[in-house]
Amino acid sequence: MNQTILSARIAEAQALRYTPAGLPALDLRLEHESEALEAGSPRQVRVEIRAVAFGTDAETLARQAIGSGLRFTGFLAAPRHGKHPVLHIQSFQQDSNS
């Protein structure tokens, strides 16, 4: 199963675009910071990940302010000509921890 849940803030959002089929699409850069236990010791975790949303999710996210903290659910996939994963956002909600 490929499912990712990530609390993150929107660090960057490109202009809303449309696919050749006319579907709204939005490219984002998300930032996450937290502390996690690893081998019994606390570790500061920081990650930046590219993300993409389509349809009404893209339209709604395009109206969110940079810095907004949200909880994203989706799946990871590599772009056609890339190596780094991109989070494909399937849903999101306000993050009560942000």
TrEMBL record:
The keyword Ubl conjugation does not apply. One of its GO terms (molecular function) is single-stranded DNA binding. One of its GO terms (cellular component) is primosome complex. InterPro entries: NA-bd_OB-fold, Primosome_PriB/ssb, Prisomal_replication_PriB. Keywords: DNA replication, DNA-binding, Primosome. Involved in the restart of stalled replication forks, which reloads the replicative helicase on sites other than the origin of replication; the PriA-PriB pathway is the major replication restart pathway. During primosome assembly it facilitates complex formation between PriA and DnaT on DNA; stabilizes PriA on DNA. Stimulates the DNA unwinding activity of PriA helicase. This is Replication restart protein PriB. It comes from Ramlibacter ginsenosidimutans. The gene is priB.
